[in-house]
Amino acid sequence: MKTRRVLFSAAAVLLAGAAALGISQDAFTAPEAETSAVAVEGARPPAIRVVPAQRRELVETLEVTGSVVPREEAAVGIDLSGMIVLELHADQGDMVKKGDLLAVLDKAMLETQRAQVVANRAQAEASIAQVRAQITDAEIGVRQADEGLERARRLQEKGIAAQSQLDNAVNAYDSAQAKLVSAQKALAASEAQLGVIDAQMRNIDLQIEKTEVKAPADGLILARNATLGGIVGASVGPLFRIAIDGQLELAADVPETVLPRLSAGLKANVRLPGMDEAIPAEIRMIEPEVDQKLRMGTIRIALSAEENVRAGNFARGSIELLRREGVAVPSTALVYRGSDGFLQRLDGDDKVSTVPVVLGARADGYVEILEGLAEGDEVVSRAGTFVADGDAITPVRGDRTGAVSQ
């Protein structure tokens, strides 16, 4: 504090002496102002990094996530109730062929029913034979009655037989005819009954055949719900679930705004947890319906055969939407006004001019410039931050690591 007082006093003494000699105070401050003015006048424009617009390959991708599911699934069930599983010939994870035996059910009850039906059929056949014999007897009776009626008519015409004899002959013929018709109807009923029994037999044979549960198609067994000694039925669900041909795919949801850019056949890479290498894949199908609440559509990405892929796996997919060459700049160089894009181009006098551009593909931090910029033109690498349209700059050229070109 004491030092400040001394300095202040010394300054006051100098000013007082100058005033006594007639020297202006400006003499002390003018040189400093001059120096400051010179410094401002010679200041360099701000150093700003610029980058050239270069031609490069642009690969635009869409990242999706979803679960691995079977392309087509077969449910192996049974419509028999109360059947016990006696044998199991396949387990989950097994590859099976169409017609392979998967399980065997107890068919003792069905075989008992079949034996009963066989006995009923034999009884029906005996009944048919009996009725046919009755028909034969009835046909003989009809012939005899017809012959008797003919004799009675001739005798009546000669006046030998009475009218009552002719009437009796007519009645006998009608009775014999009725017995024949009755026997024929009985035969038809017996044959129909035999047909019912044969149908029952076929139904039981079909049920017995179903006790041998077989694979409906080639594929991979995803699940086995059948257990030895377990009782199966139509209400317990499928005994086995099979991924037909073992084909699996990624089912992923994507926003409906992206769906128009997708099509079957687009290439993709799919990554599964724990796997270092991506699995080559492609879009197999785009489902035709969009979820009305979530506004999402589902795509199916077919996977190549891979031992480590399992149904239910979580997976990430990268779909290649576009691959082409074009003039591009870093996305940080763009400035937007609404939906329109602009770049701060470096002109020949190292001044910045803001130019409108038409944008194309985006990939890996770069944006394709379709119109408004030529290959080799330099632009401010981070536009809109430090300079405005018409400002002069000191361009800094070099890579992103900070190395500046000489």
Protein described:
The protein is of the alpha+beta class. The strands form four sheets. It has a six-stranded antiparallel beta barrel. A hairpin with a 5-residue loop joins strand 17 (340-346) and strand 18. The chain is built from four helices and 21 strands.
| Sheet with the most strands, sense and barrel status | 6 strands, antiparallel, barrel
Order of helices and strands: HHEEEEEEHHEEEEEEEEEEEEEEE
What would you call the shape?
A: elongated
Within the largest sheet, what's the order of strands? 2-11-14-13-12-15
Spatial extent as radius of gyration: 51 Å
- Which structural class is indicated by helix and strand composition? alpha+beta
Distance between the termini: 53 Å
Oligomer: single chain
The number of helices is: 4
Coiled coil: 166-193
Domain CusB-like beta-barrel: 250-318
Keywords: Coiled coil, Signal
InterPro entries: Beta-barrel_RND_2, MdtA-like_C, RND_pump_MFP, TAT_signal, TonB_box_CS
What is the gist of this entry?
With 406 residues, the chain is of the alpha+beta class.
What structural keywords apply?
conserved putative lor/sdh protein from methanococcus maripaludis s2 fold, OB fold (Dihydrolipoamide Acetyltransferase, E2P), 4 domains, six-stranded antiparallel barrel, four-stranded antiparallel β-sheet, 4 helices, 21 strands, disordered N terminus, disordered C terminus, signal
List the helices and strands and how they pair.
Blueprint: H1 2-21, H2 26-41, E1 47-52, E2 54-70, E3 73-76, E4 83-88, E5 95-96, E6 101-105, H3 108-158, H4 163-210, E7 212-214, E8 219-224, E9 231-232, E10 240-244, E11 248-255, E12 267-271, E13 279-290, E14 296-303, E15 314-330, E16 334-337, E17 340-346, E18 352-363, E19 366-371, E20 378-380, E21 394-397
Parallel strand pairs: 1-21
Antiparallel strand pairs: 1-20, 2-11, 2-15, 3-10, 4-6, 4-9, 5-8, 6-7, 8-10, 11-14, 12-13, 12-15, 13-14, 15-19, 16-17, 17-18, 18-19
Helix pairs in contact: 3-4
